[in-house]
Amino acid sequence: MGNDGSARDGLGGPAPAGGSSADASASLGLLFEAMVSLESPDEARDLLADLCTPRELEDLAQRLEIARMLDAGASYVRIQELTGASAATVSRVGRCLKYGPGGYRTVLDRLAGR
User: Fold this and answer.
1) Long-range contacts made by residues 26-30, C-beta under 8 angstroms, separation at least 24?
2) How open is the CA angle 9-93-58, to the nearest 5 degrees?
3) How far is CA 95 from the centre of its chain?
4) What is the pLDDT of residues 6-40, one digit of tens each?
5) CA dihedral for 5, 29, 114, 51, sign (positive or negative)
6) How far are the Cα atoms of 2, 23, 28, 78, 79 from residue 7, in angstroms, in the given order?
7) How far is residue 13 CA from its own chain's centroid?
8) pLDDT for residue 71
9) pTM of the predicted structure, to 2 decimals
10) End-to-end CA distance of the chain, in Å?
């Protein structure tokens, strides 16, 4: 439950309409288990292609690229110029990178071999 008593999903957002918070948490848990069960980039590509629209995949890839650029010290304006991302998207990724649960940091460090 949120602070206002509303149902929340497992990521802090509102629970889907018509479903309970427990249902959403179970579904998210299944998704996370599916993701960690993948053994190769090809398997990850195939799962994401099944789960997401091409535009959703582009958005996810863009956000990871923004995180990489922010981590390398690029300015928000330069990132917007190079990626075409909105100021809101760059800002959101920046907040997640700095204050979020650490998903971007984990992935960036692993990709960099740190």
Assistant:
1) none
2) 85
3) 12
4) 444 445 555 555 567 888 899 999 999 999 999 99
5) negative
6) 6, 11, 15, 39, 36
7) 13
8) 97
9) 0.78
10) 37
What DSSP character marks residue 8?
Answer: B
- Residue length, the chain? 114
Q: How far is CA 65 from CA 3, 31, 60, 69, in A?
A: 33, 23, 9, 6
Q: Cα torsion at 42, 72, 61, 19 (round to 10°)?
A: 110
Report residue 35 as tokens.
């993701």
11: three-class secondary structure by DSSP:
coil
Here the tokens at position 37 are 């069960």
Question: Cα separation of 113 and 109, whole Å?
Answer: 6
